[in-house]
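The following record pairs a protein chain with its ligand, nicotinamide-adenine-dinucleotide.
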Amino acid sequence: MIKLKNYINGQLIEPISNLYFDNYQPSTGKVYSQIPDSDEKDVELAYVAAKNAFHSWSVLPKEQRSKILLKISSLIEKNLDKLALAESIDNGKPLKLAKTVDIPRAAANFNFYGTGILHYAANSHSMEETAVNYTLRQPVGVAGCISPWNLPLYLFSWKIAPALAAGCTVVAKPSEITPMTAFLLSEICIEAGLPNGVLNIVHGLGSKVGNAIVSHPNIPLISFTGGTVTGKHIASIAAPMFKKLSLELGGKNPNIIFADCDYDKMLSTTMHSSFANQGQICLCGSRIFIERKIYEKFKVDFVNKTKQLTIGNPLDEKTKIGAVVSKQHQEKILSYIELAKKEGGTILCGGNKIILENELSQGYYIAPTIIEGLDYNCRTNQEEIFGPVVTITPFDTEDEVLKMANSTIYGLASVVWTENITKAQKMANQLHAGIVWINCWLLRDLRTPFGGVKASGVGREGGFEALDFFTEPKNVCIKL
Ligand code: NAD
């Protein structure tokens, strides 16, 4: 059985305690590898390595940092099949999705910031004859990067790449539920010639490793993606220490469908925005609002298409719905389906776990589920479920749907379907969200600001926003 190792100071090493815990394969429910149960001592080792490496990495010409990041990107591309297979086994997601989305995007993240840093510039402010101000953007120091399990390498690299490009060194922790591709990334970094200590990956639990990173007195910035409750806890530790914080948190995204939309395009995209990655993408639209004129037609078509989705072995090419990430998460999702029933919802399809045959019989499968008849204010429609479960609700007016869409504590992403550009713009202006997609979903340009409002987070990733986060502006004023 594979035993993962920490990547500290350029070496793959065992945790100091020599303790490990089990890593489960969601599609089979079986243990298939061992994860280091690291603690604050391993984080301290990683921090010291990162601090020592900072002296040289932070002043290395950006062209040289760029070259190494581009090498990492090309090695991820070269290892596409191996990484995609590892991601699918570790997470339960369809192999095809890992091959076409997760791993290419991880390579793109390194490529984007490897080139982006070459174009990053700072301002100068002239005071005519009196003085000139110029702003230095200096890497902040050792960055703490903590990521979740739903898009493991994709989101891990989305933090690490800009941090390294900006000249920070990093102590990173992937989710303990899906650590495998982060481990494979450490091997890639060694092959790419990343200098020792520039990136350190410490595996283990959030309560031990994550907590040690967040509360470390000399790690001045934390980039976190995960649940809102964890984000709140992290903020409560980091804020009194005056750390820079980027928090990408949960969502309960509305998907608003007007009768004047391009119906076929809307329907096929709504299938993806509802059930891609078993609904475990922070950007999935879990509350679908449909203009009453087309509600019945949409309901019939959406339910029929959902019933046709193939649930199966993630490694099978035909599989559209793989396993959800863990037994605990499967139970959480099923408990929300029970809650929806208690709240008066009608299950139109799904609503149950699926038991597959043979070696998959202990895997964590849930049938994609559509629920109607719920009040927009009930818990099922207010709390993040993060699984293959959506609710459908009719509406009559723009103001009514805006009120329902904006009623949650969250504000990450929203989708609007209409051919009327004026209406689309009104929605975009008034929706509480960091991202609004009009007539599309998950169409990403990596230069754009990415993040949420309200309980969906603080700060933005993407483009130069991430480079701004990992650098500190320092104004220098020269009297002429
Ligand atoms: P989580 O909050 O449980 O864990 C995220 C990471 O934080 C993990 O690495 C975990 O080990 C670590 N962690 C846990 N407790 C910690 C602590 N006390 N201190 C420091 N670190 C700690 O989230 P999850 O279940 O892994 O991921 C699902 C959540 O992530 C969902 O809410 C989803 O919406 C959200 N998410 C948000 C985005 C976004 O961009 N906004 C993207 C993906 C996922």
